Amino acid sequence: MTLALFLGVLIGAILLRLPVAFALLLAAGALMLNLGMFSADILSQSMINGVDNFALLAIPFFMIAGEVMAVGGLSDRIVKLAMTLVGHWRGGLGYVAILTSLLLAGLSGSAVADAAALVSILYPMMRKSGYPAFRSVGLLAAGGIIAPVIPPSLPLIILGVAGNISIAKLFIGGIVPGLLMGLALMVTWRFMMRKSDLEPQPKASRAERLKALKESVWALLLPVIIIVGIRFGVFTPTEAAVVAAVYAIFVSTVIYREMSLAKLAQVLKSAGRSTALVMFLVGAAMVASWVITIAQLPQQLAELLGPLVDNPRLLMAAIMVVVLLVGMVMDLAPAILILVPLFMPLVREAGIDPIYFGLMFVINCCIGLITPPVGTVLNVVCGISKTTMSEAVRGVYPFVLVYIALLALFVLIPQIITVPMHWLIG
């Protein structure tokens, strides 16, 4: 009864187009009333306590780093490097988009930011070279959603806080599945381009490749610093975010000299706005999470899925189906904050590795970012490229199917993720 009440109020509020943060507070308040323990003081205190978390400090700093990279020339140099390496292949600009998405993923950690950068730079080039609009938009959108999986990742930070999972281990664990997503896109793109008569880009000379590598080396060093620093305990993920922000500002202003103080002020203002939205959502979700625990909703969910606890793979498959459906109508961060506290007790009871579960959850939610009716990344890509949603859906659906197949493979053979993950974590 309480589970139905919470979900009914939450879904009803969202259908009425109430912002997700307010919908969460409304659902939490309704549940508290049902339990006879409603108190505005408890709501406000729980919200403050929810955002009073050292790990969440990583969010504003990684947002600053991502904004600086887009403005300060780091993204442009990554694209130029990818162009010299794979631009001459058949369908080369597609491979450039995929390789760039992998490299940018290690810089920003935001699907929307990466997709926006990819479309702004590569879409005009692809259209000028004769690539179909629908196919170009589909590939760029599919490449953009790799960012939340490869460290640094803002969704992995939120998931770590919501599920009480080590953020450092989530970061390290995300490397292999993120690379496999990129590989899956490359294989799919190769299949699509096998009969293409598009003129490839001229092959870059060795001197041009070395020049592009030299110009982009400062940008490429950033993910290396973050991953190596976290892996060997030099700094925590939160401290890594500060290092990333300071490093990005230093490179953009002192080395590349493409970001003025005026641009930096705009970057800080934009990052501050984004952080406020995310933190308010996190605070509301922490209130809901506290009430969920008090109302024993995880136990009710465990009773519903209880028969599957003895079969971890079947349980994971059931959870992934639910997450996939939710991800189609809800953005990534709210889906994490609402569902992870519900599923985590069940996951631990079934003996499923929390890090593996967290990575699978984020990958699944990322697919929702390019799936109608919400499809946040798909909408961003359509807006920047000025293409219709129908064209974007037509172009992206083959990649969505490939991602779902990859997700199913990870469910059937979890060792694909867990073995290299534990090897890297050590």
From TrEMBL:
The chain crosses the membrane at residues 6-33, 54-75, 95-125, 137-158, 170-191, 212-234, 240-256, 276-295, 315-343, 355-375, 395-413. GO terms for cellular component: plasma membrane. It comes from the Bacteria. InterPro entries: DctM, TRAP_DctM. GO terms for molecular function: transmembrane transporter activity. It is found in: Cell inner membrane. It is a multi-pass membrane protein. Keywords: Cell inner membrane, Cell membrane, Membrane, Transmembrane, Transmembrane helix, Transport. Its main location: membrane. Belongs to the TRAP transporter large permease family. Part of the tripartite ATP-independent periplasmic (TRAP) transport system. The complex comprises the extracytoplasmic solute receptor protein and the two transmembrane proteins. This is TRAP transporter large permease protein. It comes from Kushneria marisflavi.
